[in-house]
Amino acid sequence: MHSLMFEKRAPEDVSDEQSTKLVAWFEQRRSEIGGEPKKTIAEAAKQHFKSDYRERSFNEAYKRVYQRSRGRPARSKNKQFDVDLFI
Fold first, then answer.
1. Is 21 exposed, middle or buried (0-12, 13-18, 19+ CB in 10 A)?
2. How large is the average pLDDT for residues 33-42?
3. Which of 9-13, 34-38, 82-86 ranks highest by mean pLDDT?
4. Is residue 35 assigned to a domain?
5. What is the crossing angle of helices 38-49 and 55-66, to 10°?
6. Is 81 a domain residue?
7. In the chain, how many domains are there?
8. 56: burial class by Cβ within 10 Å (0-12, 13-18, 19+)?
9. How far apart are the first and last CA of the chain?
10. I want to staple 49 with a disulfide (CB 3.0 to 4.6 A). Which of 33, 53, 62, 79 is the partner?
11. Are 11 and 53 in contact (CB under 8 A)?
12. What average pLDDT does range 24-34 have in this prediction?
């Protein structure tokens, strides 16, 4: 029987320098343009940062600036559905 051990390492493509640059860029863009959809911001970041753009760094910076994570918003707990509508 063989056993394998894996060393957990931080992802190589996420650097503090990249995230810091993105955060500064997000804040400047938000002050100039205001609110806009995440997809629009992502496309603008790809054009601005070109080969330095990393999706993971973008998501980390976006989370820091906008206090939102990736994915769908959480379902509202206050909504109650009428069961008869789904029958």
1. middle
2. 90
3. 34-38
4. yes
5. 130
6. no
7. 1
8. middle
9. 54
10. 53
11. no
12. 91
Which distant-in-sequence residues (6+ apart) come within 8 Å of 58 by Cβ? 22, 42, 45
Residue type, 74: A
Query: Which residue type occupies 15?
Result: S
Structure tokens at 67: 């206090």
Q: Tell me the two tokens of residue 54.
A: 């990393």
Under DSSP, the state recorded for 71 is: S
Which tokens is 76 given? 């509202």
- The string of DSSP codes covering 11-65 is -TT--HHHHHHHHHHHHHHHHHH----HHHHHHHHHHHHGGG--HHHHHHHHHHH
Full domain range(s) for residue 23 = 16-66
